[in-house]
Write a structure and sequence with these properties.
The protein is α+β, with helices and mostly antiparallel strands. It has 11 helices and 13 strands. It folds into 2 domains: 176 residues, Aminopeptidase (3-Layer(aba) Sandwich), CATH 3.40.630; 180 residues, Gcn5-related N-acetyltransferase (GNAT) (Aminopeptidase).
Length: 391
């Protein structure tokens, strides 16, 4: 039986097949917490009036085997605006799996239907993993295609060896941080919020982020509406499903530092962190990361996953402990419409010019001063993720 496609306009509607969706999500090995209905429904509620959601459903008989929630919006590229289609959840979803459990032979049919329902210049999928046959077929039928590495995420596979103290330089950094924390009288705490307590804990950690440099710069996940509304609703929903985890550093009963993670199939996604600048010298980030590892050993998790880092010069402390990496891709498919052809042509012209311009810029930079500047004193800037600072 062939793939039967249909559309709906909301994940929150009573008619949406939520049970079949969750069954599909469980079958797709690449799915993450950012594919969960709790996360995506919160993302839907946070859409602006200029963003339009269309959900493509694919059925084999009565069996749901495809669900692609797509948003169409107008984005500026240079002096012009173009229609762009993305997966719902951009830009806060650190990693998404395409919920497709159908033969690759249906890829052309699906792409044709997307272009019919959502005319666009560019279809862009961010933070996907693996070059699936579906993506290859879509690339072959695009006027221009670009696949770029968005980042390489460090992950750590837990093993009995993690019961032993870490070796090398991280050991001494961890020991010093623990001594400073003990001297300050602070304590590390593990928290598994539920639907009732999630609001309290989200208020506590958002207050920490607000006084950190992320809050000052307005780049934190809790910094602005409707983004704040999105993450509060999403984390509350995930807490109700038992997926939200926190490790916090408390001083006199007050949270002064935290790491927030999402647990999915034995994998802890280390999504967000912040701490109060006044306590930056405690070095709490490394201690709380170790607490993730210890918690995982106690509860039988398999992986600690950095979730998302910058492509270059990532300072995530999991690099010190990583046993593998997960490559995130950004896949761009330019349509055959006039705007798609124009954007694709601009990309092909820009690609050979970009390295030349970067070389010119580097050559124009002044020679480095011989005096040595003091290192940054705020530990938070080392723990945060350059180029992806809202995390």
């Amino acid at each position: 039986m062939g793939l039967r496609l249909s559309w709906c306009t909301s994940l929150c509607a009573d008619s949406f097949p939520a049970t079949a969706y969750e069954q599909l999500r469980q079958r797709v090995a690449d799915s993450t917490p950012f594919n969960s209905l709790g996360w995506l429904r919160a993302a839907e509620r946070a859409l602006s009036g200029e963003q339009h959601l269309q959900v493509l459903l694919g059925f084999d008989g009565e069996h749901l085997c495809l669900c692609l929630p797509l948003i169409r919006s107008s984005e500026r590229h240079g002096p012009l605006r173009f229609a762009v289609v993305r997966h719902l959840g951009y830009p806060l979803s650190d990693r998404i799996g395409l919920l497709i459990d159908a033969p690759p032979g249906a890829a052309v049919q699906v792409l044709r239907e997307i272009r019919r329902r959502l005319p666009h210049a560019l279809l862009q999928l961010n933070e996907v993993t693996g070059n699936s046959p579906w993506l290859q077929q879509w690339a072959a039928r695009s006027s221009t295609h670009e696949q770029r590495t968005a980042c390489r995420v460090p992950v750590h596979q837990l093993s009995p060896a993690d019961r032993q103290e870490v070796s090398g330089d991280p050991r001494y950094k961890l020991r010093r941080a623990r001594k400073r924390i003990a001297a300050a009288g602070a304590q590390v705490r593990r928290v598994t919020p539920d639907a009732d307590s999630a609001a309290h804990w989200l208020q506590a950690v958002s207050a920490v982020e607000a006084v950190s440099w992320k809050g000052d710069d307005g780049v934190g996940i809790f910094s602005a509406e409707p983004q704040r509304q999105w993450v509060f609703q999403a984390f509350t929903a995930l807490a109700g499903e038992g997926r939200l985890r926190l490790v916090v550093l408390e001083l006199d009963g007050r949270c002064i530092s935290y790491r927030l993670g999402l647990l999915e199939r034995g994998r802890l996604y280390d999504y967000n962190l912040a701490f109060m600048p006044h306590y930056a010298d405690l070095g709490s980030g490394r201690v709380l990361l170790q607490e993730w590892i210890d918690w995982g050993l106690d509860d039988g998790w398999q992986w600690i996953d950095a979730s998302r880092v910058s492509l270059e010069n990532s300072s995530h402390q999991l690099h010190e402990r990583m046993t593998a990496q997960v490559e995130h891709l950004r896949c761009s498919f330019y349509s055959w419409r006039p705007q798609g052809l124009c954007l694709g042509l601009a990309l092909r012209l820009w690609q050979p010019l970009k390295p030349w311009l970067k070389a010119r810029q580097r050559a124009a930079l002044p020679a480095p001063a011989t005096t040595h500047l003091p290192p940054p004193s705020v530990q938070e800037r080392q723990d945060a993720i350059p180029g992806h600072s809202q995390r």
